[in-house]
Amino acid sequence: MKTEFEFVKPEEIEKRSFAIITEELSEKGICLDPENEMVIKRVIHTSADFEYADTLSFSPNAVNKAKKLLENGADIITDTNMTLAGINKRVLSYYGGEAHCFMAEELTAKLAGEQGTTRAAISMERASKIQKPLIFAIGNAPTALMKLDEMIKQDKIHPAFIIGVPVGFVNVVPAKELILQSDVPYIVNRGRKGGSNVAAAICNALLYELGRR
Fold first, then answer.
1. 139, 197 contact by CB (below 8 A)
2. Does residue 91 register a pLDDT over 60?
3. Closest by alpha carbon to 62, among 33, 89, 42?
4. Domain parsing of the chain, residue ranges
């Protein structure tokens, strides 16, 4: 049997992909909140997983709050260099923001060894020293969310926003629940799914919405 391919120009592939996502959501009877729509669709575009339409959770007015923070120059803290690499830093820097990841730095490893803790926890402590509004984009390490929750309760850190989408099997679900129960604005994916690519996709969905203005 001959395989049939759809011819799409390279510059039109993303547009066609989003059209397919919109069509399939409609076929599934899923109607997205207009505020959250582009975030959810970009995560689906990144993962090819429509379950995110059900599991991505947003605090009240989360998307608008996050966009306002980015527009005013907030920095983004990631827990992996993969997320860091995936974020559109050109748009971020246009608004005065920077992206940071301390995970692979020698100082982080040294402090983690000395204190008997994880590099993710040390990274959160180091991020707390940055004196500007911070958006935390966590796609890999549940211990990063656990450390954030601990420091919030100790009044040692005041995140402006948390994107909590770590992937895995150990401590992932309860770590996400800590953020869902916090007073910090959030976008969290319930359950085990997530990942660095998902964290970057959420950041970029927010940045691209600003770029279209």
1. yes
2. yes
3. 33
4. 55-211
Average pLDDT, the chain: 94
Say whether pTM exceeds 0.85: yes
| Active site residue ranges | 45
Residues near 55 by Cβ (< 8 Å), separated by ≥ 6?
Answer: 189, 190, 191, 193
Does the structure show a pLDDT above 60 at 67? yes
Query: Tell me, what amino acid is at 155?
Result: D
- Residue 137, φ and ψ in degrees, nearest 5: -115, 100
Q: Which amino acid is at 35?
A: E
Cβ-count burial of 73 within 10 angstroms (0-12 exposed, 13-18 middle, 19+ buried)? middle
Fold annotation for 55-211: Rossmann fold (3.40.50)
User: What does the chain come to in residues?
Assistant: 213
